[in-house]
Amino acid sequence: MSAMAGKIAALRIFPLKSARGVEPAAVAFAAYGPVGDRSYSVVDPEGNPLKAKQYPAIAEITPVEVGFELPGGQGLCRAQAEREVAVIDPVLSKLLGTAARIVGVEPEEQTTSLTKVAPVHLVSSGNQEPRANVVVEWPPASGDSVAVPWDIGDRLRLGAEVEIELTSTPRHCAGIYGRVAVPGTARLGDTVQKI
């Protein structure tokens, strides 16, 4: 690897906003971000998002193949496809202590404030930011394993297909945000190269 190249150490998607994520071996990136990332949200009866900051139990919900597993073996929730169908999930509501349901978020909505600040969040492998989508291992300069060797405005290629344009830095966590400039699939171990 050159001084400006690294490799993907981890890929993460978080199907339910504010809940636990999964680390697949490959992630497809569409124009709106990683496919399946924050594609569901816990909402109240009026459709307003509920956040883990106010309802900490959301952070303990685990995505599984057929829905979302609640902590402590309290049950399984399935997402509602339509936002307009206001059927409250009684098990989820009991867990949170308020009326709630899980709804799907359309891909074009995934770049709004309902789901996320930026389509892609990248960090270096020396950083302990658990909510990032792409963790990059790169040869550290001067022993620094936390900083990233890229700046806002740079473009990165992930593997042979995906290109990410770096757009901003997070206010409350480490790393850098970007948007998908060229969609494709990135895989664990793929090279990350500044282009």
Automatic annotation (TrEMBL):
Which residue numbers delimit the Molybdenum cofactor sulfurase middle domain?
A: 6-63
| Annotated transmembrane regions | none
In the UniProt record, the signal sequence range is none
- Tell me which InterPro entries the record gives: MOCOS_middle, Pyrv_Knase-like_insert_dom_sf
One of its Pfam families is MOSC_N
Q: Which domain of life is it from?
A: Bacteria
Q: Give the protein's recorded name.
A: MOSC N-terminal beta barrel domain-containing protein
User: What organism, scientifically named, is this protein from?
Assistant: Saxibacter everestensis
